[in-house]
Amino acid sequence: MFSPDSKLYQALTSLSTLVLANLAFVGLLLPVISGGVGTLLLFTVAADYFREGTVSWSKVWRTCRRGWGLATAWWIFDLLFGLALVWEWTFMSQFAEGFRIVVGAWLILAMFLVGMINVWLWPQLVRRAEAGPVGLQPEETGPVGTESAALVNPEVARESFFAMFIRSIRLGFRHLARTALALGVLAAPVLAAIFIKGLFWTVVGWMLLLGCAFGTYVVILLVGRPLGFVPALDGEAKFSD
Questions:
Q1: Alpha-carbon dihedral of residues 75, 80, 83, 84, nearest 10 degrees?
Q2: Which helix (H) or strand (E) holds 167?
Q3: How far apart are CA 237 and CA 146, in angstroms?
Q4: Which 3 state secondary structure label does DSSP give 89?
């Protein structure tokens, strides 16, 4: 039953890894500014599981160390956007009803667009950080297929943030159903906590223990293949635009 090859053992290992990643994310979220590194950690763990079925914590650390700068910058943008959204929503009640409808529609559209970009951008930040510094040789990080699909394309290491940003928009609209489903998975716990009476603390407990890591993994399941995060058994990864 507890053999390393048994399904129960593998399930418990996967669960414990997701719980550990979730707790690490919550810890990094407490100082607020380090939330970008925490989010990068969640997506790195999820991408590893999707491609390899296991997680190398040394690789997770290396990826976060390489990608913390861009991750933090994008995280700060998300925070500022969220604060602006709350401010607009709070003061929207002062306007006439017709104007509130128009402003509300624009705010919902903006939420969707930024959410869509986040869904597709974070996995690309992982891929870029995994590729390592420009000029890094594959043997310095491990063989392709076991270390990082990014090594299939060394140009990933040189890819600009703007290029990843534009690709996120393009892929978001091209795979609109995947995008909407991914956003639904991320938003469902929040909506449940707000609108279902008596469920608030249950949702909070779920998110603190496992929910953030689980939701991130589901997002990777939805967007991974179009981005080139292909499981090793399926063959060589193909990078998508």
A1: -140
A2: helix 161-174
A3: 12
A4: helix
Q: CA 103 to CA 88: how far, in whole Å?
A: 9
Count of CB atoms situated within 10 Å of the CB of 23: 15
Sole residue written with tokens 């409808």: 101
Q: Select from 118, 120, 21, 19 the least CA-distant residue to 64.
A: 21
Structure-token pair, residue 168: 């996120």
Give Cα separations from 205 to 24, 186, 199 (angstroms): 15, 16, 10
Q: Are 23 and 214 in contact (CB under 8 A)?
A: no
- Alpha helix (H) ranges present in 92-175? 97-131, 161-174
Please determine, for residue 240, whether its predicted confidence score (pLDDT) is greater than 60. no
49-80 pLDDT per residue, tens: 998 888 889 999 999 999 999 999 999 999 99
DSSP 29-86: HTTSTTHHHHHHHHHHHHHHHHHHSS--HHHHHHHHHHHHHHHHHHHHHHHHHHHHHH
- Give the largest CA-CA distance in the chain: 66
Task: Please provide residue 212's backbone torsions phi and psi, each rounded to the nearest 5 degrees.
Answer: -65, -45
Model's pTM, two decimal places? 0.85
Place 87 in a pLDDT band, splitting at 50, 70 and 90: confident
**Amino acid letter, residue 213:** A
Six-digit token string for 159: 């890819």
DSSP letter (8 states) at residue 232 = G
**Residue 151 burial (C-beta neighbours within 10 Å; 0-12, 13-18, 19+):** buried
pLDDT at 159: 83
More confident residue, 165 or 139: 165
